[in-house]
Amino acid sequence: MKKLVTLIVTMVLAISLMPISTDAAAKEMKVHFIDVGQGDAILVQSPNGKNMLVDGGPKAAGSKVVSFLKEKGVKRLDYVVATHPDADHIGGLEAVLNAFPVTNFIDSGYVHTSQTYYNLLTLIDKKNIKFTVAKELDKLALDSQLITRVLFADEKGKDSNAASIVLKITYNKVSFLLMGDADTVTEDYIRSKYDVKATVLKNGHHGSKTSSSAAFISSVKPSVAILSYGENNSYGHPHAAIEARLKNVGAKTYKTPVHCNITVTTNGAKHSVENSCGKGSAPVAKPKPSKPVAKPTPVKPKPVPSKPVTKPVTQTNFKNCTELRKVYPNGVSKGHPAYQSKMDRDKDGWACER
Description:
- The chain has helices at 2-17, 23-26, 62-71, 87-90, 93-99, 115-126, 184-193, 214-220, 240-248, 256-259, 321-327; strands at 29-33, 41-45, 51-56, 77-82, 102-107, 130-133, 147-152, 166-171, 174-178, 200-202, 224-227, 252-255, 262-266, 271-275, 332-333, 350-351.
- The protein is α/β, with parallel strands linked by helices and 354 residues long.
- An eight-stranded mixed sheet has the order 6-5-4-3-2-1-13-14. Strands 7-8-9-10-11-12 form a six-stranded mixed sheet.
């Protein structure tokens, strides 16, 4: 009996000295960039098992997106985000909404007269799905371990691409920047106001030369870049200059026509990339000597009328949030010279937000 008591005491002491398991830190997040041809579809699976679909590809890819979601164990979509109403981003969503219950639908609010968009809105209304028009600095309550924030939304954009919702999702040290079809004007706007540095960048507009400026890519400094487009598309996506810019900042580039479905897995500290075609990152195509790639002429970006870019302000020290908002109405992000942790009461990396 004495030996048994001694053994039990020894085991209790051993257990008490063991490191405490941090299940939350060990939970994995997965972001899938689905190969839908010429279009975008991104499935975000949060550490706590929530699901968000950002765009659904063209209508022809609807059944493929549904099958992919089922394969990944999706039973319900907590959020569906339509970055903008172009058919190559929302065409497949009708099939998705018919296959899965959806809790929240986030829309750009840009008025579009296409039959595809009308059918989608009709279905959302029929299924009584909560419908919200995104606003800049909105937070999506996808998962308490993530910061899921709208960096840009403009329902009055000059065209549908200019209305694109831009999302940044941060899981501890690993972040994802999803650009929709945002162009260089939007890129200049968000990098002038917010911290756009990200681990993974889903390049805007399928690698078009209207997006992914050298200045923007240098600000993001992605470790991984995703180009989602259709093979042999008529638009010439992706542009060779974009791939060169990504290579210059050391990003590993993955392309849906080359790598098929691309999955980034992270525990918030490290990340890994897998693809269903089993290929490594795509090499940058070298231009033929006889046909050198012309250096693109720099285009001075025009400011978005409804969202003027604020001029740099030298003042960085403020007594309180009331004073800070006089200069920065939307607050400031961590890394901004005016950011002070004491003003970041909810500890989400953003001080004095409204």
